[in-house]
Amino acid sequence: MTVTVRFAPSPTGHIHIGNARTALFNWLFALKHQGRFILRFDDTDAARSKQEYADQIQRDLHWLGIHPDVIAHQSARFDTYAAAVERLKGAGLLYQCWETAEELERRRRLRLSRKLPPVYGREALKLTDEQKAAYEAEGRRPHWRYLLPNFTDNPFETQRTEIVWDDVVRGPQTVDLSSMSDPVLVREDGTYPYTLPSVVDDIDLGISHVIRGDDHVANTGVQIALFRALDAEPPAFGHHNLLTTADGEGLSKRSGALSIRSLAEDGIEPMAVASLAVLIGTSESVTAVRSLEELAERFEPKATSKSASKFDPTELVALNKVLLHATPFADVDQRLHGFGITGPKAEPFWLAVRANIEKLADCASWWQIVTEGPRKVEFDEADGSFLRVAFDHLPSEPWDGMTWKIWTDRLKEQTGRKGKQLFMPLRLALTGLDRGPELADLLPIIGREETLARRPG
Ligand code: GLU
Asked: Domain named Aminoacyl-tRNA synthetase class I anticodon-binding: which ranges (predicted)?
């Protein structure tokens, strides 16, 4: 069996790190099993779905290193859903209901007050043809519910009906269909909630594994029943825990908080996002992993915790630093061009500064310092005269990694200064800053002539 997974966002906002977790769980699962990955846009809600969000989701996935094999749109498949509805109606598994939201709420409260489970009582099944005709005459349109297979002969006598599956993430799961309301599959305006289209698509697209957030566990009970009602073998299911903010709030596509796009714009590396999105809330420690292939090796769905995980964005910056510090020049060469960092000095420059940056963009100011000079620093009398002596004793060219040591050894002898007293004025004169990359590395990049130009007058 070819493993086929799908990531199924609704294009109603920007995807965030929690959505990235779902996408990556699927992508890594496919990578591990040489499977296929389908991006399915759940865009049945025409009012809220937007092309610009769909485009951005594709860009975000691409940025993370996820390249779907197939892209599908639910909005192009309404005929298929209508055919499935007809099939279910033909099998007597869909029935018309006319209740308004207020009526349903009233009944729900009544059931609760009678200590009955607050599920839909299938009252619509008792309507006579006259009553239905009367509703129609009033201009009311019915919605359609799926008659859950949780009874033997009498739908008003439900009995415990277990749907069980071995969850790819959570292990053995059981959902009791008698604890649930018959779900609405077609709304009164003819639109479809997510439940049925998803099953129809998963059948047609040959999905072998549905991996999604654990907010869908109860849906899975209903959907497995629907697969069977449509004579299809249900796929395997996996439900991962959700991420929350530090305050325990759920992440929302609409708020734009922690969107993948904003993290990218903020200079966070894709593998920092992927490492945290996948490893947080698992028994694996969160470390900066360099590639999705390596992450796939570390990815073990069953190691995922069952409770929600708090997500701390500052961890992203820490991971970012670790990743950048170990990034070879070839991997950033092109991106450095974007900051004007080109030419023969670009590689030694990168190797000198990479251990001192949090974000790639931090390179730009270092490049400016190295190539154009530092901001002006005022020195007191003692440091000023020390520096003048120092610059008068610059080693001759060629300059390399040893030049700094030769120079400072000479200065120790010459001036008696050592430690911070020796190094700090030099650092300030050369870079304008009191911390930064190793001066031994920077010095040959700056070059003798440019260094001399930094001699305080
Ligand atoms: N559009 C659904 C969601 O974002 C997809 C759930 C699923 O993967 O089945 O919640």
From this structure: 386-454
pLDDT in tens, 211-230: 999 999 999 999 999 999 99
Distance CA 295, CA 290 (A): 8
Contacts of 329 (CB under 8 A, 6+ apart): 346, 347, 350, 351
Q: Are 417 and 368 in contact (CB under 8 A)?
A: no
Taking the CA of residue 211 as reference, the ligand 1 atom at the shortest distance is 8
Q: What is the mean pLDDT of residues 165-192?
A: 97
Q: How far is the CA of 215 from the centre of ligand 1 (A)?
A: 10
DSSP tag of 343: S
Second CATH level (architecture) for the domain 80-164: Alpha-Beta Complex (3.90)
Does the predicted model carry a pTM greater than 0.85?
yes
Q: Ligand 1 centre and the CA of 197: distance in Å?
A: 11
Q: Is 253 annotated as a binding residue?
A: yes
Determine whether domain 1-73+193-324 maps to CATH 3.30.70.270: no
Architecture of the domain defined by 381-453: Orthogonal Bundle (1.10)
The conformation of residue 295, written as its DSSP 8-state character, comes to: H
Rounded CA separation 258/24 (Å)? 16
The token pair at 55 is 């485009």
Are 100 and 130 within 8 A, CB to CB? no
**Cβ neighbours around 421 below 10 Å, total:** 13
Q: Per DSSP, what are the bridge partners of residue 16?
A: 259
Q: 19 in ligand 1 pocket by Cβ < 6 Å?
A: no
Pairing of strands 70-73, 94-97: unpaired
> How far from 98 is each of 87, 128, 132, 134, 189, CA to CA, in Å?
21, 13, 8, 11, 12
Cα 73 to ligand 1 centre (Å) = 13
Residues 59-82: pLDDT tens digits?
Answer: 999 999 999 999 999 999 999 999
